Amino acid sequence: MTYVDWIQRFLKFHTEVSIDELGDNHAKLYLEYLAIERRVASSTQAVVLNALSFLFRKVLDRPLDVKGFKLANRVRKVPVVLTVDEIHALLEQMQGVYALLAGLLTVWYRDAFNGSYSFADTGY
User: Fold this and answer.
1) Out of 25, 28, 54, 85, which could bridge 66 as a Cys pair, Cβ 3.0 to 4.6 Å?
2) Backbone dihedral region of 90: left (phi > 0), alpha (psi from -120 to 50 degrees) or beta?
3) Is residue 69 part of a domain?
């Protein structure tokens, strides 16, 4: 989304307030709404803050001070990693073309990153 999109959403969020009355508290309220109710990513919240800062500085010709607003939670994604035994069990369940492709990918991966495996090591 662009700054214009976020500014339009901000103005729709505060339809009961005239543009001349919009202040820091309105921006803070909107940023917290995005973080708490809409659960946007912290990077999205940062873009919205920059859009609002642009609106206030360049269009409304007044500074924006929103210190202390609720920050969006940063989501930590934990990678899914299988153990060697889990990979072997998974490969044993595959059949036909899927087994062949998985076996070839396994060989390629081992060869590319370790260099010490061959087709004989995979059991295929």
Assistant:
1) 28
2) alpha
3) no
pTM of the predicted model as reported, rounded to 2 decimal places:
0.58
Give per-residue pLDDT as tens, 62-102: 998 888 777 777 667 777 787 878 878 888 898 999 888 88
Domain-embedded: residue 77: no
Is 18 inside any structural domain? Answer: yes
In the chain the first and final C-alpha atoms are separated, in Å, by: 49
Using an 8 Å Cβ cutoff, are 22 and 14 in contact?
yes
Residue 116 pLDDT level (bands cut at 50, 70, 90)? low
Q: Which domain, by its residues, includes 28?
A: 3-59
In whole angstroms, give the CA distance from residue 71 to residue 121. Answer: 51
